[in-house]
Known about the structure:
single chain; mainly alpha; 70% helix; transmembrane; membrane
Amino acid sequence: MGIMEILMIIIPTTLLWAAPLIFTALGGTFSERSGVVNIGLEGLMVIGAFTAIVFNLTFVDVFGAWTPWVSLLAAMAVGALFSLIHAVASITFRANQTVSGVAINLLAAGVALFLVKYIYGKGQTDIIQRGFSKIDIPILSDIPIIGPLFFSNTYYTSFVAIFFAVVAWYVIYKTKFGLRLRAVGEHPMAADTMGINVTKMRYYGVLISGALGGIGGGVYAQAISSDFGHATISGQGFMALAAMIFGKWHPLGAMGAAIFFGFAQSLSIIGSSLPFLENIPNVYLLIAPYVLTIIALTGFIGRADAPKASGVPYIKGSR
């Protein structure tokens, strides 16, 4: 197997697994840039995956080929609503943000599995008939060398995720909204003095994180698992959280880290077809993403400082 054939397997698979992580890591970036720690990304992916699959199964006859995309909108809306619980608890009532995030993770899993059992009478949903499938992107796939590597046998969701990362970078660093969001995450008292509504901006950050986390779960469920059960989302939310930290709370950095972790996850799927990995026991490939996550966070990111007010509730008039 030549290098070209190997890359034609690795790159599309890496981008497929990276897409959900990119969306979710971007969501975490918006939340933490506003000053609210959100370790509930796993729960937001769970509720997004559940919503997307149930919506897809229910309305496939209505929306036809557009069903996966409309299902993402449903997952986005439910993810945003679910994150409202975290926002109310951590911003309005100034609860411990870590505890609130853990509660979101537990609540999402419990609610989703209860509803699956109630609706379908079993521990998992049916398999969807219309999900995101492999495509060759017109025109781009015909480009020599680059086309076969990046734009053939791939998924639209991968490039939508990359596009969202660029948009997130522009919003956070090039717009008035982004400036205000970063201000309330770094110096909320100074921002308040300048007339910025700290509470409102933090609500925006958390709701955006919920929306993007829901999309991440929806993409994973409809492109990779094709159904929803107790193990559909199993650590991807925490991996997205790690990607956000690895990327130093920067949208493009988070995207790069998500692609790296996507590559690590893809090894368990494509490892047996690669000449240099075919003799490695599959169990080692399965644990590779988590080992690489730990190594990356402990040894290779250097100094990574969170926004100064991240995790600190803001009380108007306090220092």
